[in-house]
UniProtKB/TrEMBL annotation:
It is a multi-pass membrane protein. Residues 308-318 have a biased composition (Polar residues). GO terms for biological process: fatty acid elongation, monounsaturated fatty acid; fatty acid elongation, polyunsaturated fatty acid; fatty acid elongation, saturated fatty acid; sphingolipid biosynthetic process; very long-chain fatty acid biosynthetic process. Its main location: membrane. It comes from Oryctes borbonicus. The lineage of its organism: Eukaryota, Metazoa, Ecdysozoa, Arthropoda, Hexapoda. This is Elongation of very long chain fatty acids protein. One of its GO terms (cellular component) is endoplasmic reticulum membrane. Its EC number is 2.3.1.199. Keywords: Fatty acid biosynthesis, Fatty acid metabolism, Lipid biosynthesis, Lipid metabolism, Membrane, Transferase, Transmembrane, Transmembrane helix. Residues 295-318 are annotated as: Disordered.
Length: 346
């Protein structure tokens, strides 16, 4: 234990030699291990402890809480975007090609330093995205992409606030907060339920916007490798490689969620002399399977016997649509009219 404590102190001492004095004593800025501990705890809770505690419990219905939470995230992201934009990027104060860090105590400069810390803080508030998935037993939404994205970001931004608050690196936050305005608006609308799905046709374009964001960050960061700019090369690589990593993670999600779904066609199978269709699954022996999770026993041996089975990812015994549908992302699914009519006709 003494060796661990000494190693922690040595790391803190080394980092503090090069820190920005303006943020040195700010909340969670004195050591990276506070942020690291929170991030590790987040991963353990959402991947292991949370699902285990919810295993034998019914999912919570959080419709109103989700609407309020996402509305507050829209307001918070809008405020952050405005402050970063007015602090330099949309006022002509910042150079789009090269913007060194201003380490002075100028009041206008300190505003950008402060908003850099608030952007860092916002990454912790986004942990609630995953916690709500856990409470609602939407474990299929707690993907590798989701956990990496939320778990890594606080630690990544901490280094920026510690050493380079303001300047070139704030372009990341400038683009990211704008994307989050759009993203949390989508989540808020989807939280109202299936009746909003017709207005959420633009979900796939949201993922495209997220990927475009990372391309913009890559180009903006890596251009400093080819021009003379008084900005730390280490942070050029740090920001640029984060953008590369997230771009390919989101691209993989896009491919799985949209391109692959186009290739899947609902099969048609004769069931006990009748013709039955199923959505995203197979119809076998009177059962309608959907995504391999839910089945509905329609008619067998001359009588009607409803039977619904769900796994831990479903709730309320309701048929579940493809997980990429808009309303299903944040709300419990409901039986689509066309599927309900098809089942009744069997």
């Amino acid at each position: 234990m003494a060796l661990v404590i000494k190693a922690v102190e040595d790391v803190n001492r080394y980092l503090n030699k090069y820190q920005d004095h303006r943020t040195a004593n700010w909340f969670l800025m004195t050591s990276p291990f506070y942020t690291l501990g929170i991030c590790i705890s987040y991963v353990i809770i959402v991947k292991y402890i949370g699902p285990k505690l919810m295993e034998n419990r019914k999912p919570f219905h959080l419709k109103n809480i989700l609407i309020l939470y996402n509305f507050l995230q829209v307001i918070f992201s809008t405020w952050l975007f405005y402050r970063i934009a007015s602090g330099g990027w949309l006022t002509g104060k910042y150079n789009w090609r090269c913007q060194p860090v201003d380490y002075s105590d100028d009041p206008e400069t300190l505003k950008m330093v402060a908003i850099s810390w608030w952007y860092y803080f916002s990454k912790f508030t986004e942990f609630f995205d995953t916690l709500f998935f856990v409470l609602r037993k939407k474990n299929d939404h707690i993907t590798t992409l989701h956990v990496i994205h939320h778990g890594v970001m606080p630690m990544s931004v901490w280094f920026g606030v510690k050493f380079t608050p303001g300047g070139h690196s704030t372009f990341f936050g400038f683009l990211n907060t704008f994307v989050h305005i759009v993203m949390y608006t989508y989540y808020m609308l989807s939280a109202f339920g299936p009746e909003m799905q017709r207005y959420l046709w633009w979900k796939k374009y949201l993922t495209t916007l997220q990927m475009a964001q990372f391309v913009g960050i890559m180009v903006h960061a890596f251009q400093l490798l080819f021009i003379d700019c008084n900005y730390p090369r280490a942070f050029v690589w740090w920001i640029g490689m984060h953008a590369v990593m997230f771009f390919f993670l989101f691209k993989e999600f896009y491919t799985q969620a949209y391109n692959n779904s186009r290739r899947r066609k609902p099969p048609s199978t004769a069931v006990n002399g009748k013709h039955a269709n199923s959505a995203n699954g197979n119809a076998v022996n009177g059962y309608v399977y959907q995504n391999g999770h839910t089945k509905h026993h329609t008619q067998q041996n001359g009588y009607h016997r409803p039977h619904t089975v769900t796994n831990s990812g479903d709730s309320n015994g309701v048929l579940k649509q493809n997980s990429t549908s808009a309303s299903d992302y944040y709300m419990n699914g409901h039986i689509p009219t066309e599927i309900e009519q098809m089942v009744k006709s069997q």
